[in-house]
Design a protein that fits this description.
- This protein has 356 residues and is of the alpha/beta class.
- The chain has 2 domains: 68 residues, Orthogonal Bundle (5,6-Dimethylbenzimidazole Phosphoribosyltransferase, Chain: A, domain 1); 270 residues, Nicotinate-nucleotide-dimethylbenzimidazole phosphoribosyltransferase (CobT), large domain (Rossmann fold, 3-Layer(aba) Sandwich).
- It has a 6-stranded parallel β-sheet with strand order 3-2-1-4-5-6, with helices on both faces.
- α12 links the parallel β5 and β6.
- α1 packs across α11.
- The longest helix has 20 residues.
- The radius of gyration is 20 Å and the shape is globular.
């Protein structure tokens, strides 16, 4: 597609995302209050089910089929020494995902979720069975010297992510968890979060996957340099994404838009998927109603991301792995909340007296 065609496609996808169904939300809450329990006694689980059903637009929402999507790509800013790991690890971990040996593989198996891995732009193409080739280019450019990608590349990655969401929904998937893999992508996420949340580099930059003090100093400098160089405008989220983001982050933006347009709730992982959600929500304000936050990560600025998105995390486990690990761990909690809603008897059905 040409850039103008991709822009038109993005506009149509944004327009297709509807707000949460207020009528379904009200009826879900009313049904909760008729169950054999004190009103509100299941706390956040009740709020979660209301949000899920309103997102899906139906009271019978169950999420019987679930998937976690891990999008992978490399980042030019890795050349600044901002990560604890070499760039080769991105492709190596994608191969590990394909072989079934990573944490996310074990977690998805344990919760009955399908795992789908997509290469949006690793430096070395991964030709392993089970890895979807959605490559835009062999990694982004170094954002301390220029834009990480062109807007056309960002639009291409968004469209490929949206197409993947449509594929999953057509396959019967009713709940999609987000994951990512990309050496140095915490730096990209930090720059995006700083720009969209109005934070200084010091507030936005954390340890990522465990960078040492010297590495964090390099990371801080890289983000500060990029913010000064690009002077991002929060009112232009596509331009901001192109300046800092990775292909996997753009792909996640598209995945969220594509899922929401089909009324399929999305479970965020941690800081990096949260940064992608900030961009997606800036492009499409109606999107937020379709997002669930799985956990509060160990990355310091994640609190500010969740606050900006208006989301309350389901878990707090000090996770900082990525891969969609938090999203997978939240899925049994979601299943439990939905089971309580659908399978618990009402006061009338159980012959139990309601409160006075």
């Amino acid at each position: 597609m040409t850039e103008s065609e991709l822009n038109a496609k993005l506009k149509s996808r944004v327009a297709a995302v509807q707000a949460a169904d207020a009528g379904v939300a009200a009826e879900t809450l009313a049904r909760w209050d008729r169950k054999t329990k004190p009103p509100g006694s299941l706390g956040a689980l009740e709020t979660l089910v209301v949000r899920l059903c309103a997102s899906a637009g139906r009271l019978d929402y169950r999420a019987r089929q679930k998937a976690v999507v891990v999008m992978a790509a490399d980042h030019g800013v890795a050349a600044e020494g901002v990560s604890a790991y070499p760039v080769e690890v991105t492709a190596q971990m994608v191969e590990n995902f394909a072989a079934g040996g990573a944490a996310i593989n074990a977690l998805c198996r344990s919760v009955g979720a399908r795992l789908l891995v997509a290469d949006l732009g690793t430096l070395r193409p991964v030709m392993a069975p089970g890895v979807r080739d959605l490559r835009v280019a062999a990694g982004t450019e170094n954002f301390t010297r220029g834009p990480a990608m062109t807007e056309a590349q960002a639009l291409t990655a968004i469209e490929r992510g949206a197409g993947l969401a449509e594929y999953l929904v057509d396959e019967g998937v009713e709940l999609i968890g987000l994951g990512e893999m990309g050496i140095a992508n915490t730096s990209a996420a930090s720059a995006i979060v700083a720009a969209l949340c109005g934070l200084s580099p010091l507030q936005a930059v954390g340890p990522g996957t465990g960078v040492d003090a010297e590495g964090r100093a390099r990371k801080l400098q890289a983000v500060a340099t990029a913010l000064e160089l690009h002077r991002p405008d929060p009112a232009r989220p596509l331009s901001l994404l192109a300046a800092f983001g990775g292909f996997e982050l753009a792909g996640l933006v598209g995945l969220m838009l594509g899922a929401a347009a089909r009324r399929t709730p999305v479970v965020l992982d941690g800081f990096i998927t949260g940064a992608a959600a900030l961009v997606a929500s800036a492009l499409c304000p109606a999107l937020g109603a379709h997002l669930m936050a799985s956990h509060r990560s160990a990355e310091p600025a994640h609190d500010r991301v969740l606050e900006r998105l208006g989301l309350s995390p389901l878990l707090q486990l000090d996770l900082r792995l990525g891969e969609g690990s938090g999203a997978a761990l939240a899925m049994p909690l979601i299943d439990g909340a939905l089971a309580a809603f659908h399978d618990m008897a009402s006061f009338e059905e159980a012959g139990v007296s309601d409160s006075l």
